[in-house]
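QA checklist item 7 of 12: single-chain prediction sanity check.
[x] sequence parsed
[x] length recorded as 1120
[x] structure emitted
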Amino acid sequence: MSLRSCNNPAKGLFGRGGVLAVMMALLALPASVFASGGENVTLKFSSTDYIFLFVSLAFGVIALAIAFGIRGWVLKQSAGPESMQTVGQAIIDGATAYLRQQIRTMSIFVAIIFVLLTAMYWNTYGPTLAIGTAVCFLAGVAASYVAGAVGMGMAVRANMRTAFAALNSYGLSLQIAFRAGAVAGLITVGMGLLGATLIFLLFSGEAMKLLVGFGFGGSLAALFMRVGGGIYTKAADVGADLVGKVEAGIPEDDPRNPAVIADNVGDNVGDCAGMAADVFESYEVTLVAAIILGAATAAIFDTATWTKLVMFALMARGVGILASIIGIGFVKADDSEKDPDPLGPISKGYKASLGFAALATVVLGFFMMGGMQGTEIKTNLLKTSQQVMQPEVRLALEAQKRIAADKKVGSSYVSAAAINGDEELKKLIPDQMLRDQAVSAALNTPLDKLGEEVKLEGYTKLSFSDTKNPVLSYAVMPASDPNSPPPANQAPITFKEKYEKADLVVMKVEVIEPDMPKRTFFLGPDPRDKGEEQIKKAITDAENSKTGSKIELAGVYPVEFYSNHSGDVVAAVSGKPGDKFNPAALQSLTNFRIEYIKTSVADYKEHQKALEAGAAELTKKQQDLSKKFEAATKKQTDAEAKKDTAGVAAARKELAALQEEAMKLSPQTQAPMATAAQLAVVEHKVVEWWKFVACILFGIIMAFAFEKLTDHYVSMNKKPVQELGQIATTGPAPMIITGFASGLESSVASVVAIVVCLIAPVWIFNPAEYGGYLLSFYGIALVGLGLLTTTGYILAMDTFGPISDNAQGVYEMSGEGHDNAKGARAVQLLDAAGNTTKALTKGFAIATAVVAAVALFHAFVEAGKLSTVGMRLEVPEIFLGLLLGGAAPYLFSAFSINAVGRAAFQLINEVRRQFRNDPGIMAGTSKPDYAACVAIVTAAAQKELLGPGILAIASPIMVAFVFSIGKEPVLINGMPYNLVGAQALGGFLAGTILSGQLLAVLLANSGGMWDNAKKLIEDGLHGGKGTEAHKAAVVCDTVGDPFKDTAGPALNPLIKVMNLVALLVAPLVIQPMGDMVYAVVALLCAAAIAFAIHQSKKGSMSSEMQAAMDEQAAHDAKNA
């Protein structure tokens, strides 16, 4: 059988038209389907914002254009002689068949989720936005698959070109392999940035919800490609190695091995397509997290500022694209080098990429985030007068405590006069009025209760261009003076009409009188021109009074409006950065009263009409009753005159009934009551531009840290791997124990590295200074952006691995150039370098998953209304959720590893069967049936996909709903919410993030150590290949294969999928639905998980072994 018969070539997938074209069309679908959905837009981008968006779009287009340009250059290189092309085509056919089959398998799953997403959000978001979220989910799935398909399509075409070029030019072969990998990298980053930017341009204010759907689609596709590709590649690898290398004793990539094509295909579907989809998902999710958390800062920034934070995330991604392109250009090698090392140019390119990214980020941050004077970013922190006075109250409480200690009495026995007379307190609070108020407040506030006063949370600055905000349509009276009562019968106007151009200000006035301390007052609010006119008149009057009094205007402060989701309004006196308001002086604003009616002008007028109609009806009834009173009174008078006792009693009874009826008369319609806006102070603090840049730079530092950690534990030149190689002569058991222990150690080291880098944003954006953790979490998201700043280059490094590995396979199987020692050496060097780059990039993927999950976790907390009640571990449901979340990655890994074992045994049995039934294979006189092996691992990989996918989606939903059963709702801003299920889900996510990260690093690094220890021995340690030490190392490598290439990498998308599912379901699960609904959803999810577990138990390694033994026994009996 020829190599070409492995499978029918699937030209449509990577060529013109076909599935790839359909995917690309699907990615563009939102533009044509929902471009008319402008009625849902709530955010108006400024002209500057649109410039940033179109620049971001241009960055994405540049990445795609250069990617396709490089692709054209690679394809122009010679594919070599027919023998090489035959091997390469067999790999192409196998990879194409696998990917097409996976798309078929996943399409049903995706269709179900599409319907569920639409149904979930139909009532919450409305039909257009619900369908839009579901379509963006499809676009995310499509984009992730396109990234994987294009990357793999380039890789399987580059391997034969790399192998052939190596026979003549080492430098050219390096460029072909790395630039082919760069195609996958640039396609990934280009599509990621393009997709997010298009969603912003098409959906504007609703983009936050749709971006979560887009990220969820990318994560789910990455999960399927990582799991399926990992099962395929490791089942093929294990099957090829155990029978080919260990049992048959033939070299790696020997054409006599029936599993060799499947093994080479596996390098592409696992390490290329799977990694591309995984990195695309990481790239997209970290961007989504940064955008969502940038938007969440609306609580402390105005719209223009938080929009700038969103634009900064997009621009930082654009800088990363340019950095990746520059780094790719640096990867070159000279054929004249005596001792060439491919890692040298790759490392040089990586450093150039990071260096440019760091420098460009500094420049971008300076110009975009307030580095120039007058463009500073300032926070808006709302405070009540009690909060403003808190520092002075604390000083008074400390003085009270100090006096009580001196007098040896209880604090309650210290008088106000004693505190006020404390000399140290006088120095700290020289203003008598402020000191009096601070002492008064201190006597009513225990020290341990300080800070528990009512805070103004959930308020954002009112934008008069936000047409969706109901506050703008509130009815107010159009009196020119906000402190004057409205004229009688005055028609109301809207809040927007009255205050949009009112330019209200508060004046700070200082009064200086002879022999008196200076006094400070705040006057207003008044329109600016009127207030300034009044102050000028007061200053002139004081100068003309001849009393020596003096009045000075010390400051003019605008009045800003803030509103919350309940429609409450705060009128805040806005200072400049660094201004400190005297709380006592603020009390002088006794006439500060801005009133509004919580209803629209039209509704108010309807109320007035109803009130007037009711008043007229009431008047008529009163007139009728008055006449009846007169008649009854006359009856009583006449009866008394006639001394008619019965008549008098009847008249009195009638009067009593009329009086009772009169008491019941009241207007049927009550007029809407006016509400006074709460007075507050808004303090501003400048957020220095360098702090945003520093967070991204910490992400770059994190990338270096993970590179160094991974290199230390898995590099053949470092102590852990060398120690493993040294003990190989003792057998596989000591190697497994030592490698596993080192893997455990590396997990702890990685957690420490992550904590150090993620704590940095909390220090940089101190919550005490910036009103909470909003900026801190945005900083964490920026760390994620920094970590993957050079995603295009990182993915080029990773894809370089399977390309160079396949090039080695093509070289060995084709038989070409085996007499070319220089060419053979070049292929070996590229293969060794590729193994290193693949190992290093795994660390990036793991770290990014954790950073993105931490950032998304805060978004989940906000969506689940948990910032109000928190998530205390002593709450049983939260602790139980934590336990379940910690267990989930272990069950997921069990699914993946068992799947590899079952598939590998099926392949092992097939390879043994071919060797047994056709002795000509080993003799080299007949060809193996490569297609049978490819078909086995393709089918096995697809069969095992659904279980992990179901677990990732159903388990967080089950936890949220099952812990909501029987719980009483709590009121937040007057609305009932069932928060216990969301709290338990928060614990679940925390457990998943921690155990998933630890387990992913353990599996990846321990497997990598065993793999490289085997390579050490193959390079000549302990006698090299074929020795007992080598066999022990092969066993360890076989154990580690599903660790490092299946279960470990698949945990990255698992963590992010679970967080995105939680983010999507949080707004729904907190709605009171009734225990029956909670129970039904929980049972359905539990049934789905039970089905996944049952499917994972179908067949086992023991059953496959028994089948092999039975077949061998039958063969032996037949030949006996």
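[x] summary fact logged: Confidence is low (pLDDT under 50) at residues 1-42.
[ ] second reviewer sign-off
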